[in-house]
Write a structure and sequence with these properties.
The protein is of the alpha+beta class and about 220 residues long. It has 3 helices and 9 strands; from the N terminus they run αβββββββββαα. The strands form 2 sheets. A 6-stranded mixed β-sheet has the order 1-9-8-3-4-5, with no helix packed on it. It has a 3-stranded antiparallel β-sheet with strand order 2-7-6, with no helix packed on it.
């Protein structure tokens, strides 16, 4: 029975690995919204295809809008990549995938003026035998560029918890060592007292203390 359960578990693991290799999973995750001045910032835009077995032509448009401004087309993919003249000229780089599910771009050497709202528009035209339906999706990224990287609150909490755990474990080890030391010392004192009492007994009494052996 145990061998059967083990065999089923191994088969399940192999099946999951095989499915993961043969059919990559597409997950639409949000983009980061904070960048440090002078670094490269990837504007993540993932639009998963629900019908991957059907061929589709994909058009990607990236817009930028400053605070109080209007949407400005800065990058486009329509069979070819095209970067429009803007404040980002020479600083935009395609960072997507070949299957056009990841249509991200990277802003090189970001500046404080790059803060604003970035819009990723994806339009797909599916090629069915009878009709060619259109699918559109849009992602908004509110990017804030800071001069220096701020310390992450989560990492601070994690460090504090780690130090607390280390202190707790250290105290626990010290308590265990003291407890074991006292226990060993008490056992040694007990043995020493018994040996002292035994030596204090006269020789003739020691012989009487011997247990008689029945024949």
């Amino acid at each position: 029975m145990a061998a059967l359960a083990t065999g089923l578990w191994v088969s399940s693991v192999l099946l999951v690995i095989w499915v993961g290799i043969c059919s990559p999973v597409c997950v639409e995750v949000p983009s980061e919204t904070e960048a440090v001045q002078g670094t490269h910032m990837k504007l993540l835009c993932i639009s998963c295809m629900k019908r991957e077995e059907v061929s589709a032509s994909t058009v990607v448009e990236w817009f930028y809008k400053s605070e109080g401004g209007k949407d400005e087309l800065i990058y486009e993919y329509r069979k070819v990549h095209h970067e429009f003249p803007s404040r980002f000229s020479g600083r935009l780089q395609w960072n997507g995938s070949k299957d056009m599910q990841d249509v991200s771009i990277t802003v090189l050497n970001v500046t404080l003026n790059d803060s604003g709202i970035y819009t990723c528009n994806v339009t797909r035209e599916f090629d069915f035998e009878i009709h060619r339906p259109l699918f559109t999706s849009s992602r908004l990224i509110h990017l804030t560029v800071v001069e220096e990287a701020g310390e992450d609150f989560t990492s601070v909490i994690s460090e504090i918890m780690m130090y607390i755990l280390l202190v707790f474990l250290t105290l626990w080890l010290l308590i265990e060592m003291v407890y074991c030391y006292r226990k060993v010392s008490k056992a040694e004192e007990t043995v020493q007292e018994n040996a002292t009492d035994y030596l204090a007994i006269p020789s003739e009494n020691k012989e009487n203390c011997a247990v008689p052996v029945e024949e």
